[in-house]
Amino acid sequence: QVQVVESGGGLVQPGGSLRLSCATSGSIFNLYYMGWYRQSPGKQRELVAFMTSDGMSNYVDSVKGRFTISRDNSKNTVYLQMNSLKPEDTAVYYCNTKPFQGLDLTYWGRGTQVTVSS
């Protein structure tokens, strides 16, 4: 079992920055996959960025060059540094982890709201 808790959301002006954190705890260590997703009203949840424990990462095109994902494997924590934020980045951001490669086991946090508005 893994508990997932996001933090760091808030209200920011366009062009501003936020750093999201996702802390995990539980009986599983060395989580293979950790990712950030987002969902805005009326839209499907989409993958924003992910990083695996062996360093593989990827981003949705709309955030490339603005967002950076990183993780601290010793703490099973993942971060999302978001720069040059735009109003269209407004969404609830969710952290997801898949502890084992190739196994369909996944855990979600409850999300943190990010609002980009002047």
Structural class per helix/strand content? Answer: mainly beta
Multimeric organization: single chain
DSSP helical segment count: 0
First and last CA, distance:
40 Å
What is the helix fraction of residues, given as a range? under 10%
Shape: globular
Question: SSE order, as H and E?
Answer: EEEEEEEEEEE
Total beta strands: 11
Radius of gyration: 14 Å
Provide the residue-averaged pLDDT.
Answer: 95
Largest sheet composition? 7 strands, mixed
Please explain how this structure is put together:
With 118 residues, the protein is mainly β. 0% of the residues lie in helices and 53% in strands. It has strands at 2-7, 10-12, 18-26, 33-39, 46-52, 57-59, 67-72, 77-82, 91-98, 107-108, 112-116. Strands 2, 4, 5, 6, 9, 10 and 11 form a 7-stranded mixed β-sheet that branches. A hairpin with a 4-residue loop joins strand 5 and strand 6 (57-59). It is globular, with a radius of gyration of 14 Å. The N and C termini lie far apart (40 Å). 30% of the residues are buried. The model has no long low-confidence stretch (mean pLDDT 95).
